[in-house]
Amino acid sequence: MTRTYRIAPSLLSADFARLGEEVRAVIDAGADMVHVDVMDNHYVPNLTVGPLVCAAIRSHASVPIDVHLMVKPVDRIVPDFAAAGASFISFHPEASEHIDRTIGVIHEHGCRAGLVFNPATPLDWLMHTIDKLDLVLIMSVNPGFGGQKFIPHALDKLRAARKLIDVASARTGREILLEIDGGVKIDNIGEVAAAGADTFVAGSAIFGAADYRATITAMRAALAEAGGPA
């Protein structure tokens, strides 16, 4: 089956001293989305950005803003990120007291909802939520810091998630993106795509490169070889 692939540079690896310029640069280089990692030093051992930063980059972003909440609790902050311009808001099931309610809050505020699975988190949550989700995010590193190495077991989880998504999409006709985050690079993005991912978060692989366009172009070439339109 032919899939549309999306590349979502993670701003966690960008130069925060010139964040607006960085957002414009990766979009000009061919990014399909920009990924915003929100960490609270509670659910994960790091502290990054809040809604004010999301709002600040909104005028620079001509593509969807993909917000990944690594925070606990979740529901209180969702409206703020929706108002700040998020298109997608994803959260971890372990961080929500009532997962179905949190998905509803995201939708009520006009955003598409995603559920995030850490390396050791089972996909069982999808049994009860997949028909309401717009995105499933598989973490291929433990959340909290950029620049980590890809955990190979994530490929097995991607394959399992792809089967569940395909069945759900065939039943409902809804689009559900399958996103991967952590250690995605030019040399493994094709293998990751072959396992089922269609949306690829890449931080240091893009922002650590001298030429953003060349890096994204090389990723698209690898994805084209994997069997889908880049």
Report the major sheet. Answer: 8 strands, parallel
How many β-strand stretches?
8
Q: How many domains comprise the coordinates?
A: 1
Helix percent band = 25-40%
Question: Are there runs of 5+ residues with pLDDT below 50, and where?
Answer: none
- What's the CATH first level? Alpha Beta
Say what the CATH topology is: TIM Barrel
CATH architecture: Alpha-Beta Barrel
Could you state the oligomeric state of the chains shown? single chain
Distance between the termini: 14 Å
Report the C-alpha radius of gyration, rounded.
16 Å
CATH evolutionary superfamily? Aldolase class I
> Taking all residues together, what is the mean pLDDT?
95
Can you put this structure into words, describing what you see?
The chain has 230 residues and is of the alpha/beta class. It contains nine helices and eight strands. It has helices spanning 19-28, 51-58, 78-83, 99-108, 126-129, 154-172, 189-194, 204-207, 212-226; strands at residues 6-9, 34-39, 65-70, 88-91, 112-117, 135-139, 177-181, 199-202. It has an eight-stranded parallel beta sheet with strand order 1-8-7-6-5-4-3-2. It is globular, with a radius of gyration of 16 Å.
